[in-house]
Specification:
This protein is of the alpha+beta class. 16% of the residues lie in helices and 28% in strands. The two termini are 17 Å apart.
């Protein structure tokens, strides 16, 4: 797992140990599946605030220093600075957040660059089936390319009309509403297109490789 050794000494080890225990115990699982038409997935509760969850590190990345590299199984790799990112077509989406720790927040307003636009630019190879997200804090997580390519997925830089704050993953984070939010990496700096599924930070610690909230894919 990329950069894992570099962050283990700094992260909130107690938090990691607790969440690994949750996985071992199957904590929060109700055993009930629901159709995605049901807005609140099984085992979730609605909140009005936006709780902050991280590994104990909140990288201080400015727009001036931020970069995004897109590499792997793509025809046209790219490396964007902030000016490149800002020149791309901007979209606005409203979507819900579903956190694996059992809270959901409805009607979040986002602004950013649609992943479908990014895919049109980089042109993934037919063999590319998954996307591994890399963050400035060393965090990684994996998502199927089919989910990454959904119409409501974006590289977000604004939430509720304001730049996404540092604590919530600014300047740029992924927003992928159909999966638990650990699959939407904060402080995004690299997208790697790969042929085989590759477990990220939480996945190697017992969390699910996909993470569908409506079928309670909290743990693997």
């Amino acid at each position: 797992m990329a950069n894992d050794d570099g962050i283990l000494g700094q992260i909130k080890q107690k938090l990691v140990d607790t969440k690994r225990k949750w996985s071992d115990e199957g904590r929060l699982l109700t055993g009930v599946a629901a159709d995605p038409a049901v807005r609140l997935p099984p085992g979730q509760r609605e909140v009005k605030n936006w709780p902050v969850l991280d590994l104990g590190i909140q990288p201080d990345v400015s727009a001036k220093t931020w970069r995004l590299d897109v590499a792997g199984l793509v025809e046209n790799p790219i490396s964007w600075g902030w000016a490149d990112f800002a020149r791309q077509p901007q979209v606005d989406f409203v979507s819900d957040i579903h956190c694996v720790t059992a809270w959901s927040r409805f009607d979040n307003r986002w602004r950013g660059v649609a992943t479908r636009h990014l895919l049109d630019l980089v042109k993934p190879h037919p063999s590319a089936k998954y996307v591994v997200q890399h963050s400035y804090d060393g965090y990684t997580t994996n998502v199927p390319l089919a989910y990454f390519a959904d119409a409501d997925v974006l590289l977000a830089h604004e939430w509720e009309g304001q730049p996404i704050s540092r604590e919530h993953g600014g300047p740029v984070r992924l927003v992928l509403p159909k999966l638990y939010f650990w699959k939407s990496a904060k402080w995004l700096t690299k997208l790697e297109f790969v042929a085989e599924d590759r477990a990220g930070f939480w996945e190697v610690r017992g969390y699910h490789m996909r993470g569908d909230p409506w079928t309670e894919e909290r743990y693997g």
